[in-house]
């Protein structure tokens, strides 16, 4: 049975935001972890807890708000940053977002993008190592241990150089929680498998982008619009290498700033180019609100 996730407008109705202009916009980061499969690229997706304060029940990529520790000079010291590794103009400012994306992937999905002391990507295939990092993950989630402390204790270097910055989305005005989110893509490390934390997220799966979009279209996988558009982007590639090569060539990432507008048939999320989507389902309405004309999408 299709299960709907709360839309932006439903959250506004549930929580009185008072003055929408007063809602702060928090920095956030998301990483699309991808791997090659027989059907093409697969991406790791998680389902947010049904009682989550933001889009509960929705399927998402690992991610969350940028924390103070993601900005620290100490965390930069344990991060491998490659200037030539596909960093768009002005990308020096996104390092904290990359660290946040890596941290959130570890907290929510149990996948850690990091190099060991020998310069190889860390793996959890050894049971003792897996158990040790499971303990690290729990301590990180509880706030008892920071990512920098984990890296120094395990002689790790965060694999910031493996992330590619591909898009940026800003939550529409009117939501009780607003985020300015950088989206990254990275090849999933071998020797690690996702495991949801059962706290913030309650399900994990590897899925081909086209299948995820089909399930969303049928109501089986509720998603918000940035997730849908990111899956559409991933679906255009036949391999992880092809995707990462293209992503590395991105020179400028412009923020996407949707707006929510009322309509006789319900609220609409409208992109800057006028393309409109149903606010509840994130499905295209077929209406171009910049001119009032049909843009050829199925209702």
Summarize the structure.
The chain has 299 residues and is an alpha+beta fold. It contains eight helices and 15 strands. It has helices at residues 8-14, 73-77, 95-109, 127-141, 147-154, 209-217, 225-234, 240-248; strands at 25-37, 40-48, 59-60, 63-65, 114-115, 157-158, 164-170, 178-187, 201-207, 255-256, 259-261, 268-270, 275-278, 284-288, 293-294.
Description:
- By secondary structure, the chain is of the alpha+beta class.
- The protein has two domains: 8-248, Nucleoside Triphosphate Pyrophosphohydrolase; 258-299, no CATH class.
- Helix content is 26%, strand content 25%.
- The protein has eight helices and 15 strands.
- Strands 1, 2, 3, 4, 7, 8, 9 and 10 form an eight-stranded mixed β-sheet that branches. A five-stranded antiparallel β-sheet has the order 11-12-13-14-15, with no helix packed on it.
- Helix 6 (209-217) packs antiparallel against helix 7 (225-234).
- Residues 1-16 and 287-299 have low confidence and may be disordered.
